[in-house]
Fold this sequence. Notes:
Elements: H1 2-20, H2 26-33, H3 37-50, H4 55-63, H5 68-81, H6 88-102, H7 105-118, H8 124-128, H9 135-162, E1 167-174, H10 177-189, E2 194-201, E3 204-214, H11 221-231, E4 236-239
Antiparallel strand pairs: 1-3, 1-4, 2-3
Helix pairs in contact: 3-4, 4-5, 5-6, 6-7
Amino acid sequence: MKTYSRIFIILFLFSNILSAQEIDIVDYLQRIEAGEIEQVRNELPKLISATPNDPSVKFLDAVVTADGNEALKKYEDVYNNFPKSNYADAALYRIFSYYYSLGVYTRAESYLNELKTKYPSSPYIKAADRKIPDEEEKEESIAESYNVLSKIAKSTAQTSAQQKFNFTVQAGAFLNFENADKLKNDLIKAGYPSEVNPKTVGGTILNVVTVGKLMNEKEAEPILNLLKQNFKLNGRVISITN
């Protein structure tokens, strides 16, 4: 009898662990970034049907929702009902951004404070931590916007003129920084110049591992072959400005 009880407890704990695991949606987010949002939308119903209560799937559903109000409700669902999920802080950041873009600064500020308080290690704090303007600053910002845009345009033109490298090879993209850093270090040990950079993909900050800096896409061929042979990785060429 004790043996059966132990087996039952083990199975119960194992099922709880499995249920706590979230679907990995990084590939879907990358496809959205690559312009395949319609394809992801078409595949989403099947994913929702298989895992209707998965918070990562719910977040993905919000990302591909075109209507802003509907997307907001879905982000709120993720944040309010799954506060410990992988994308809870990303959902909260999206809620903050929604109200900030509408100029509802008081409410936006309250969500920014929640982000800082509840997720102090979130990478979205830096992205969201912008100054909430007061009434005078709103008027001044309108008057200064043309000057700012002009400066940005000139700076961009100068940067483009000085840019020597146009492409790099993406070896992987991870939600978890430690995993990205491990791959980077493994690549460096193997003799590949590698680095990790945060990148916003589908509203989510991913840690992207890249290898090398290239003048053109053709130079990437030997790197892609070596990554596949030595690391079993299917790298892809991306613009160095991405």
